[in-house]
Amino acid sequence: SCLQSQHEMGQIAERQAQVEAMKASVEQQVFERTLELSESEERFRSTVENSAIGVALLAPDGRWLQANRALCEIVGYSEAELLKLNFQAITHPEDLEADLSYVQQMLAGEIRTYQMEKRYIHKNGHLVDILLSVSLVWDKFGQPMYFIAQIQDISERKRTEEALAQTRDQALAATRAKSEFLANMSHEIRTPMNAVIGMTGLLLDTKLSAEQQDFVETVRSSSDALLTIINDILDFSKIESGKLDLETQPFSLPECIEEALDLVAVKAAEKNVELAYLLEDETPRDLIGDVTRVRQILVNLLSNAVKFTPRGEVVVSVRSQVEPNGQSAFQFAVRDTGIGIPQDRMDRLFHSFSQVDSSTTRQYGGTGLGLAISKRLCEMMSGTMWVESVVGQGSTFYFKILAEAASTPPRRYLNVTPAELSQKRVLIVDDNATNRQILTLQTRGWGMSSIAVPSGEEALAQLRQGEIFDLALLDYHMAEMDGITLAKEIRKMNAELPLMMLSSGFLTNRRVTELHGELFAKFLPKPIKPSLLFDRLLEIFSENQVPPTAPLPVRRPEDQMGENLSLRLLVAEDNLVNQKVALRMLQKLGYRADVAANGYEAIAAIRRQSYDIVLMDVHMPEMDGLEATRKICQRWNEHDRPYIIAMTANAMQGDREACLAAGMNDYISKPIKIEDLSRVLEKWGLKLLAPAG
After folding, report:
1. pLDDT by residue (tens digit) across 325-356?
2. Distance set, CA 610 to CA 55, 195, 603 (Å)
3. For residue 590, pLDDT beyond 90
4. 3-state secondary structure of 177
5. 324-358 burial, b for 16+ CB within 10 Å, e for fewer?
6. Residues 6+ apart with CB under 8 A from 17
7. Residue 292 contacts by C-beta under 8 Å, 6 or more apart in sequence?
């Protein structure tokens, strides 16, 4: 029994020792864990305390519980001072409502976090812009414990944003002022230009001596040159200020090129420079884009090419390819045989107001804006422009634009082989290789066969060798033997062979027609237009061909249009000279018109009697044209009031839209050309004659 008791006592002691050991181990673990937690808490507190961003704990009622050093620096309070306040006390009153709304939504469990920009009131009274991010910590019973807030000082950023906004506003104001200045300058310059160009145009239609004719033509050409410079400056300014918008309408590529060539044809003919164009077979003939701006680029490049080409040729060529996005890329090339451009001056080409030759004794004029404008227009059409040149050999300016090909009915002169032309043999005589190539391609495309030679002697050699031809195309300007001399020699050998004369320049065509009309079946002006060549060939080979006669003179718009289209007209214009110009132009068209000096007088005149059309100047004293038009539209319904055509010297983007928005029916810009005036009167005059509905 005693031994058993001792054994039990030993077991108890052993268990006690084990318990003590376990207790010591647990205490050690607790100590170590407590130490770890303490170190972790210290690290966390140290991290928060040394953070560059303000960090704080806030009670659910908004009292500050803890704040780090960065927050204290942001608001200017010590932590002890902050703990006596709540966040409402340092929040700007204008931001407090939004902040409290977010807090209430968070306490209601509707949102988990929120972020907002707000303003704190610094201890010294100035405002501090901050970015506040807040989240809420909940206990295990679902009760809110405290908010954790991160506060970032964004005052510097806000000042930068405000400075940028101010700079932007100033830039926008400057742009608006610039646009208004351009509009005013446009009006002020174009108004007297309208008088100069209009009056010289009328003067040229009167009987003048040779000396007077020369003087007036000089004034007119100088006025046109000045207007070109003005238009360049205005276009450049519109591009710079973002006021130039592109149209998106279907247009004919061949017609666009031909119109551009027509505008430089006279200058080219004066220098005996050949003009031509060639479209690759696969190139679409119709595009969707801004035909006015494409033509403007071409005219700029063609004008430069003719200006810097003393002899030879200027050729436009176009090819296309389909881009990965499905759009077509159209690459234009304007090649000349002119003086070329030195490599060390290439970088000046596309800079504003820059010339390759910037010396005061330079031979060629210009503003230095044409190429800069053209390049910017290309870029607006998702394209680019570049040049290749060799001094003494010429230059080629390339530009590429992106555009969609338009779906249009096929042209009657493309991809056809009419029976009248099929198998016909044609002799082409032209000393220009490009023209021979173009004529050969065009005639072969219509089923004809051709032989092309560069001189009259070679043409006569073909005939002497017994070659049989159905037609001969003869160039007028050729070295050694011109087209007239060649035609006379051919007539000695073959009196029946139809001959077609190709020549540049209206005066040359008229002179040749008057003096040598009996030699030729048809006359064709250069640059050669496929549609016109096709028509002339069909006329020659038609079974019902009438004997060739000299071309009828083109009917000018001033040939008493008023006899065929009777209209009652009112001119509303305050400038006395411009009144005179408008009345004389209308007189040339066969019309008499009444005059009003401002909007009030125009309305009074319409009350007294009815008019078919009112030509309304936009800028007039007392009541301008826009206000007068609005009042006319309010007083008279659409069927009782006259058509109103704006006449304005403004040329900025949006001017046409402003006129139409006021109720005007159409728009012509100053300086007014008699052709434009005739066109607009015919357009709206015919509407008056059209049946109702």
Report:
1. 777 899 999 999 999 988 877 777 777 655 55
2. 81, 28, 11
3. no
4. helix
5. eeeebbbbbbbbbbbbbbeeeeeeebbeeebbbee
6. none
7. 247
